[in-house]
Fold:
Amino acid sequence: MSCIYLDNAATTALSPGVLDAMMPYLTRVYGNPSSQHAAGRESRAAIERARSRVEQALSVRSGRIFFTSGGTEADNWAVLGGARAMAHRGRHIITSAIEHHAVLAAAHRLEREGCTVTFLPVDDRGLVSVEAVREAVRPDTALISVMMANNEVGTLQPIREIGELAREQGILMHTDGVQALGNLPIDLSELPVDLLSLSGHKINGPKGVGALYVGKGAALEALLLGGAQERGQRAGTENVPAIVGMGEAVVQITADIDARTAHIEALRNFLLEEIRARIPRVRLNGHPEKRLPGILNLCVEGIRGEALLPALDLKGLAASSGAACTAGSPDPSHVLLAMGLSREQALASLRFSLGEDNTAREMQAAARILEEVVAQLRTF
Ligand SMILES: *Cc1c(COP(=O)(O)O)cnc(C)c1O
Structure:
């Protein structure tokens, strides 16, 4: 790609090592993992190897990782399957206003099925308060779903505290860890969560694969029916190459997490300095400290926001207005609105999300491009 790619929260480049790991399963090894012959057994063994690699990277006991078609399916499964399996306890769900749409839409589906959902507010930095969770808990609360790290502004949530609260009360605890993986150390042997969603393509793995961690004893109904795959919990012939790629991607991204995040964070801070030095009236959206290393969400005051991204794109700079899945629609980000930004401010905001391949030169060039585009848009 010849553009400056600062949209790694939307998706990342496939790592060459991941492609190498996948290649045999896109070509020579094509047996159905459920088949009772050598070709099938070879595919089956590859899946189980990938599973143990993910389990080891997250300090999970064997058999607690279930592969899915991505982060969306993992989120849908956790929320719908978790709430349905906990219906004996009650039909009240707690989540936050800034979740990914894969969680929010599933929560809205549960409302249509007769559940009551509390959508917790956030403060102006995008933080959910543990006290607010405590106050929202009712005797019939079945499930709490709060994300580890927000994909638009990067704010990190107090998952340990919320999880402890859930555990005390016997409430099922789900967290969307899609953006957290590779950016924060995740040790599931000591983190009090029951369900955790992951995605392959946000960590230099392939698209169309993800995973759900299901803690021992966690209640969960299956969503996909009609086969014994994934120990009867998720029917459908497995995407073997993608699962192998996911295993390799998780190992790679968690291997040198400190060096990787330090590099990305330094680049992000440099980008912010460069922007601030060139462009007046730019505000940081999100938490000043408790945030992902690679995300820089900015509000550029006094511009028509709709014109911003297309203008950057024309100059070869790939950024985002927030969630990629709502791009193209004129709706302002639900995350920024929940943080108290006005419609105009939310529309005049943009997200840069960095990856490990970005360079300091690119940060300078990106700041220069943004300066030109903002100067144009502000004269209108
Ligand atoms: C990308 C993303 C998802 C969805 O994952 P897919 O694999 O694209 O379906 C879910 N949650 C968060 C926080 C994300 O960033």
The first strand starts at residue 4 and ends at 5. The domain at 16-254 is CATH 3.40.640.10 (Aspartate Aminotransferase; domain 2).
